[in-house]
Amino acid sequence: MKKPAIILIVVFYSIMLNGQFVENRLQVGIGSNFTFPVNPDQISRDHFYYPSLYGNYPAGIGGTLMLDYKVTKTIRVGIQLEKTRFGSWKGDPEIFILENPTLSQSTFSFCGLFKLSDYLFYSDIISFGILVAPVISGINMHWKGYILPYYSDNYPLPTTEYRTNYGIKTGLNVMYEINNLIGLRTDLYYQYINMESLYIMDKSFHSVNISICLYLKFLKNRYFIYD
To answer: CATH number of the domain at 25-222, please?
Structure first.
């Protein structure tokens, strides 16, 4: 009976007298994202100027789901799923055949996170690095109706268009470890998406994005730090 008790006492004092470092390998989180289009307001084609669909939208707001896994000390890989809706279009509605375009976007990305802070300083609370990811984007455009009834009678066109496009995003990633259970992740990145559309002149969608997620930690490794 004495032997198990002695073992428990030794383990207890080892925990109390020595620091414990908890490393999480899997992170699962949810949060918000903000998309700021940086396309120009107008597009020039053959000496004519056309309104940019994306350049005339205000910032978009949406939600983010993220999951990432620690591969090595400085590399994490993961996926992100984002859904974003944009506000009212600010361009000249008389330029388009269709009026009042509304826009929503869904993006799926496979992310690589390269931790840089370990090369500059050591901290088990905060870290930062570089984010690089290919992007698959689903763009859903909807127009309220036709500006001129002539087109609806003689040249009927669909008022909804959905396109799948591809691109890339890259930027900075910061993680703050609140405790051994949860953390806060912030991504600031530039995103480029190649575009094709039946109605608009934009050939690409450029934006600056901010994503903020609260995540839970799983698959923990525990290390004891001895003096």
So the answer is: 2.40.160.20
